Amino acid sequence: MSEPAQPVTLAAEAGTGGILLWVALPYVCLAVFVLGHIWRYRYDKFGWTTRSSQLYERRLLRIGSPLFHFGILVVLLGHIGGLLIPKSWTEAIGVSEHMYHVGAVVLGTIAGVATLGGIAILIYRRRTVGAVFSATTRNDKAMYVSLTATIVLGLAATVAANIGGGYDYRETISPWFRSIFSLQPDPALMTGAPVLFQLHVLSALLLFAAWPFTRLVHMLTAPLGYLTRPYVVYRSRDTTLGTRTPPRGWERTG
């Protein structure tokens, strides 16, 4: 009986190449991600923004933006659950591998298609609407390329794995991911993963390294200051304001 075909990998074994790709690179990208955000917040607070282009065009934005953001939110939640929650934990609460696989494939495919469709609309909008295109920097273009590549590779890996009979990434990629954060990296786990999964992980690492220097920083921002900031004082030159008591924030100043 012949041996089953082994998946094509970027490195035949966890040698020097495997250590560079699956140990050194993740830690470098993680350090750049953390330190880059600290640097950006300290020295570029006024640049910490999405540079909204809503004033230039709204019709396509109303379609593409919600589609992309809701899709990417589901994708991120799925990745968090699949990478951080061990397989033994889901099985312990009665979720079989088949149940988990079906749920992950269905939700992941729907969310992936929604995310890809949303970003396609947003890119089309930036390219075809003159005012929006003029406000698009080289940094934005590089970010869109990196983000789109990561999404496409992830969706392609999911589709290819299921066409080929399925691939349980929770036995290789998930333990490797957790080993990085436990400071006990095991590159051998990644060298056995199919090439599309490896490329998806590498593209995600590079995206996270570039993250602090792009408009993606807005994802780590919450407008909590609006809850406690003081009212803005408005003054009027009108001398005939009437006798009605003005509402709070509109008191007369004399």
UniProtKB/TrEMBL annotation:
This protein's name: Respiratory nitrate reductase subunit gamma
Assigned keywords, A-Z: Cell membrane, Electron transport, Heme, Iron, Membrane, Metal-binding, Nitrate assimilation, Oxidoreductase, Transmembrane, Transmembrane helix, Transport
Location(s), subcellular: Cell membrane
The species this protein was found in: Streptomyces chlorus
Name of the gene: narI
Cited InterPro entries: Heme-iron_electron_transfer, NarG-like_domain, NarG-like_sf, Nitrate_red_gam
Domain NarG-like, residue spans: 20-237
Membrane-protein topology: Multi-pass membrane protein
Gene3D superfamilies: Transmembrane di-heme cytochromes, Chain C
Main location: membrane
Keyword Zinc-finger: no
TM region positions: 20-39, 60-80, 100-124, 144-167, 187-211
